[in-house]
Amino acid sequence: MKWSVLVLALALGGCASVSDIKQTPPTLSVISGKKPQEYAACVVQKLASTRSASQIEPHKEGVRVIVPQKFSADPSAIFEIEDRSSGSSIKLYESMSNVPIRPGDVKKAGEDCISG
């Protein structure tokens, strides 16, 4: 039963665009001592084992990382990482932010990369 709910949630979570995902409240909002490129590289490296390649693109005063879904190239999450004088400000937006059983690998990668 749990698997069918997960598959249904993943199916419904598809087809979200970057602008759709940005309309959701952030699921992570933190400050890191790492510079934006360093933090983005850490997140991409941590997600490499569970997802296909994430896109890193310039955004405002930093970078944006677009994380694909587990089973397609459609966006699943967005990290907006902005430069600060002593590191960076990070916000994570997820397409299924209101689904409690969503995959936790993206948020965990974001949290693991905050320090050191």
Automatic annotation (TrEMBL):
Top-level taxon: Bacteria
Sorted UniProt keywords: Signal
First and last residue of the signal peptide: 1-18
Protein known as: Lipoprotein
